[in-house]
Design a protein that fits this description.
Strand order of the largest sheet: 2-1-6-7-8
Helix content: 25-40%
Number of strands: 8
CATH class: Alpha Beta
Oligomer: single chain
Strand content: 15-25%
Shape: globular
């Protein structure tokens, strides 16, 4: 075990992000597991927190295999061989609507933060394959942030190598091999529920730290 829980993981990450403390930036947390990490880091850095609503676009023959990603900021398809265009259009639209509904549930009527010219720090409680986050980074890049940083407690070596190539700064505490799944590296990896996300966001909102 590397971490007691997500709070412990965030506190171990925090010193490595100290260099961004006085910058103009925003934390983008991947719900739901990334939200506790983002919550603590947003408080530590005095950054606003927003949610990175993204979901992989799965192959019609195997939904676990990502052929791209869909987010509130747009979509990207990277593997189209043998995939009908109609499937891509319909699945992209379905996922987009689902993400919008989820965002409204968590953030109300707030618009997603404008990241142009800002340092964005993408956080999650861990990364396994990295396929979805890689596609998401390409979507975010189109929004012209000043810098894209990915900060995670643990990831596979393969994902780390891939992410490092496409971001401005990659911060990760552990890249164990073999990699058996994110939860294996936490003593307490209790599932984060919607109610937990809302509680954390509401608490930050009272402090003016929600984007």
């Amino acid at each position: 075990m590397y971490f007691n829980d997500r709070y412990d993981a965030a506190m171990q990450l925090a010193p490595l992000l100290e260099k961004y403390k006085n910058e103009k930036g925003v934390i983008l947390a991947v719900p739901r597991g990334g939200v506790p990490i983002g919550y603590y880091l947003a408080k530590y850095l005095d950054f606003p927190l927003d949610l990175l609503m993204t979901k992989k676009l799965g192959h019609p023959g195997n939904e676990e295999f990502a052929i791209g990603a869909v987010s509130l900021e747009g979509s990207i398809v990277e593997e189209t061989t043998g995939v009908p265009e109609q499937y891509i259009r319909e699945e992209t639209r379905r996922i987009s609507e689902q993400l919008k509904e989820r965002y409204i549930k968590f953030m109300g009527n707030k618009e997603p933060v404008d990241i142009k010219g800002k340092i964005i720090i993408v956080v999650d409680d861990g990364v396994a394959t990295g396929r979805t986050i890689l596609s998401t980074i390409k979507i975010l890049r189109n929004k012209e942030p000043r810098k894209i940083v990915v900060a995670v407690p643990v990831t596979s070596e393969e994902a780390a190598d891939r992410i490092r190539e496409v971001v401005d700064d990659f911060i990760c505490l552990h890249t164990p091999y073999p990699f058996y799944g994110v939860g294996r590296f936490y003593a307490d990896f209790t599932q984060v529920e919607d109610e937990d996300v809302l509680l954390l966001l509401n608490e930050l909102n009272t402090r003016g730290k929600v984007a």
